[in-house]
Amino acid sequence: MTKFLDARTSNHWPIAFPGSMERFVVDTPVMVGQVGLSVPADTTGILRTQLLGQVGFYILSEDIFAPIIQIDVMRGYLTTDPVIHTTYVQYQPSQVQSQSVSFVAADYNVTPPPTGLLVYTMYVTALVLDMGRTGPECFNASVYTD
Question: CA 110 → CA 57, 120, 138, distances in Å?
Fold first, then answer.
């Protein structure tokens, strides 16, 4: 029988003032969500984590290259930790407007963390110039065992 262990949510809306927008730096991962799930080190059974996310951004200008956004989810804190999920979305150069990307991912057969805290981090990378952070930036995780 499946047993629910914990669930956490990370929500962020980066625009503080109307008309202001932080720009992504090309090829530089930006942490936009992080959750820490409580999982006792002595947990038995097969651990599985369900992950859901959404990232809102704005394509600022028509470029000769099609705008591409990359979303990565790591098990841990850093971009060098194990990659659990990657999403790439490419747009037409003429799609200058607000965009939103959502994803669903899973991490299966996870080893219980010795510290009791299972951390997942979501990073966004703009692969071209002129992309801004508008939000929302939502990241949710739930962990189960059997």
Answer: 31, 12, 23
Which residues on neighbouring strands pair with residue 50, listed in sequence order? 106, 142
Q: Tokens in use for 82?
A: 């194990």
Do the Cβ atoms of 51 and 85 come closer than 8 Å? yes
pTM above 0.90, yes or no: yes
Question: Average pLDDT per run of 10 along the chain, which is 146 residues long?
Answer: 95 71 90 97 96 93 81 97 96 86 97 96 93 92 96
Measured CA to CA, the distance from residue 74 to residue 2 in angstroms comes to 24
CA 62 to chain centre: 26
Give the per-residue pLDDT at 20: 66
